[in-house]
Amino acid sequence: MQRPTQDMINYDQLLEQCQKELCVVKIVKPYNLDKICCLTLLLAYYYKKIKDYDSSLKYYKQSIKLISLTTNDSNESASIHHTIGLIYYINKQQYNLAVKHFKKELDTYELNLNDNKRQLGNLYNLIGSCYLKQNKYTQALQYYEGCLCLYTQCSSSSS
Fold first, then answer.
1. What is the pLDDT of residue 3?
2. Which spans of this chain does the record mark as coiled coil (predicted)?
3. pLDDT(82) > 70
4. Which of 20, 25, 32, 99 has the most CB atoms within 10 Å of its CB?
5. CA distance 36 to 42
6. pLDDT per position as a tens digit, 85-133
7. What local confidence, expressed as pLDDT, does residue 117 receive?
8. C-beta contacts of 101-108 below 8 A and 24+ residues apart
């Protein structure tokens, strides 16, 4: 059997099914926040795939709230903040909002003592790029220098 390609996936149908299931779960099992969170994340992803970024952002933001009520998984929250930041940066060119979410991701990594220098360097680079797009050169330089420092530590530790 042939694996479905991106063009073969009917996101409209998936969205409809997912929305129906979310409605049912909210009525039948309103305290099953894990299931509600999972469905909310799926809706965010599906909306992103069909380029309905406003709806995608709405569901990603709901997911962050649900995660804080359920598992409080900071890595999952950080990942969602990263995705939201990318939507604001790439698709909506709202750089101030992108910075806000990238910094929330950065705060989470710093709280968890994430020592993945390459990942942190990429995040510093994104924040620097957002500031550059806003003509905030001092802040951009600060984050680019931080990025360079982290990348230098990566290359020296792998040698």
1. 47
2. 92-119
3. yes
4. 99
5. 10
6. 999 999 999 999 999 999 999 998 888 766 788 889 999 999 999 999 9
7. 84
8. 102/126, 102/127, 102/130, 103/127, 104/77, 104/78, 105/78, 105/79, 105/81, 108/74, 108/75, 108/77, 108/78, 108/81
**90-113 core/surface letters (b: 16 or more CB in 10 A; e: else):** eeeeebebbbebbebbbebbeeee
Q: How many CA atoms are closer than 13 Å to the CA of 107, on its beta-carbon side?
A: 8
Per-residue pLDDT of 5-49, as tens digits, reads: 555 688 889 999 999 999 888 888 878 889 999 999 999 999 999
Look up tokens 């992108």; give the residue. Answer: 98
Going by C-alpha positions, the residue among 47, 81, 85, 49 that lies closest to residue 65 is 81
Whole-Å CA distances, 102 to 89, 119, 122: 10, 12, 11
Instruction: Say if residues 76 and 57 touch (Cβ distance below 8 Å).
Output: no
Per-residue confidence (pLDDT) for residue 157, from 0 to 100: 65
Structure tokens at 75: 């890595």
Asked whether the beta carbons of 86 and 95 are under 8 A apart, the reply is: no
List domains and CATH numbers for the chain: 12-72 (no CATH), 95-159 (1.25.40)
